Amino acid sequence: MSPRRPRYRGTTLKRHKPRQERQREQPPASISALILGVVLSCAALIPGQELWGFGVVVLLGTLAGGVIAFLAARAILGDDTPGHPHRWDTQHIASFVFPLVIYAVGGVLTVQSLPAGLVIVAFGTIIALIGAVVFSWVALVEILR
Distance of alpha carbon 44 from its chain centroid, rounded? Predict the structure, then answer.
């Protein structure tokens, strides 16, 4: 005998995401900043490359990461799950946007052929690595909860 599904007439049931699924909205942004750091580190190793050319690569990568960050931020702010407080949304969004801001500053400096831009891009990569590790730890704690 097959189990009967309840019938709801005139109402719709909204399926709310469990905590683990909500946490999956941010990884693409955190991981994209980390992957961008690895790609930029590899691009910086290309011999004979002009600084302004590397700056263009940094800015294009930052633009791509910005699109992913925008989509992740929209998903975080649009989460209407009951019991999901929005008091930490700003910190979550800042954790994956901050490295992109650093990359953008480094990209602008390297487009202007200023060697300080290389240091700024390296700093952005370190910040992206720290952000990805922190997010992974938070996600692990939330999943185990």
Answer: 22
Q: Position of tokens 């992974």?
A: 136
Q: Tens of pLDDT along 86-107?
A: 666 777 788 888 999 999 999 9
How far is the CA of 40 from the CAs of 6, 108, 133, in angstroms?
A: 54, 14, 19
Q: pTM, whole model, 2 decimals?
A: 0.74
Torsion of CA 114, 119, 125, 130, to 10 degrees: -140
* Percentage of residues in the chain having pLDDT higher than 90: 43
In DSSP notation, 101-132 reads HHHHHHHHHHHTT-THHHHHHHHHHHHHHHHH
Cα separation, 57 vs 111, whole angstroms: 9
- ∠ CA 31-106-109 to the nearest 5 degrees? 160
The C-alpha angle with vertex 35 and arms to 29 and 38, in degrees rounded to 5, equals 150
Q: Do 22 and 81 touch, CB atoms closer than 8 A?
A: yes
